[in-house]
Amino acid sequence: MLQEVELESGKGEINKYQNDLSSLIHSCVRDLKKFAESRDHTVKLRINEELMIEFDRDQIYQVINNILSNAIKYTEPPGAIEINAIITNNSIEIAVQDNGIGITEEEKDRLFTQFGKIERYGQGFDVIIDGSGLGLHIAKKIIDSHGGEIWVESEGRNKGSTFYFSLPKVII
What we know:
alpha+beta; two-stranded antiparallel ribbon; 172 residues; 6 helices
């Protein structure tokens, strides 16, 4: 994947502009609506209607798409997914919370590494197990390149997960 090679080498170009993060989240949810419906999931948005911040729209779309796709994949039907925006003095944090299969402490350490996919095949979960294990690794590289942070919280197996990422506010 060319973008990952560019991010790994530090040569990937970031085209940051003032954008509406709320609009981008709505777009991503629309793009994944049929996938969520096919898994009998509801997606609830609790975000401000205008979250103006500087970021590369294509790259942050990729991050949101990956996190939301994973929430849909790793939540057994029927499921509930909620997207929240938390505005602080220095950043905007986005939280994608699901009531899915959850993540153990030892799994958390592998999630954002290259090929850090957690194998679910044969474990009796009604989840979609395809994917390369690169999505969260690339998401971390993108968020790092924007000066933000990405992390996950989960109380363990069958207790859902919340993936967060933050982007710094830039005064223009």
